[in-house]
Amino acid sequence: MMTTVREVSPGNTKRTVAIGVGAGVTAGLLINLFRKVAVQAPTVLAGQWDKALAAEHAAALKIFDLIEATDKEATARRGILLTQLKHAIQKHAFQEENVVYTMMRDHGLTEAADHLNHEHGYVKQYFFDLTEMDKSDPAWLPKLKEFRRLIESHMQEEENDLFPRLRTKLTDDQNKHVTTAMNKEGLKLA
What is the pLDDT of residues 98-115, one digit of tens each? Predict the structure, then answer.
């Protein structure tokens, strides 16, 4: 029995590697796009911008619930959930700051928009503090609960007062535009 050995030229090897790399990069980009769409989908499916933001508020509060249900020995779980909460709130804040608060300023709610934006700075401070603290520290959970009170107050002000005020100042087409623009911004960080 005779076996034929086929020579592989350096040009063919390079071409095969290039095709493999290209296919890998394309697959990675597609997977990332599908992941982004999946992360932003609940917001899109919630409908109008104010309803979508309220749904994101509710989702963040559920993560707070999960964190608060941990005990001080569950430091890894606390860290993972805090990271999830941080990602959800950062994406949410990005949408608000880049679209909703801007529209508020454009429609006579400048002081309110600046106030909400200012509170977002404290949100970042709480995330920093909670990340830096040992997750088993007895002060960690009280700090998280203090953070939650700030977040809940912020959410209630938006949902019960400021977002309805903005919605009534905008035309139907402007409200649709805010929804579309907000979802585009959310997709960037999803």
Answer: 999 999 999 999 999 999
Q: Can you give the pLDDT at residue 23?
A: 77
Taking the CA atoms of 116, 122, 127 and 130 in sequence, report the sign of the dihedral they define.
Answer: negative
Mean pLDDT rounded to a whole number for the chain: 89
Over the stretch 126-144, which tens digit does the pLDDT of each residue have? 999 999 999 999 999 999 9
pTM: 0.81
Q: Cα separation of 4 and 25, whole Å?
A: 35
Residues 6+ apart with CB under 8 A from 47: 179
Distances in whole angstroms, Cα of residue 100 to Cα of each of 4, 34, 97: 69, 26, 6
Q: Which two tokens stand for residue 84?
A: 């999830």
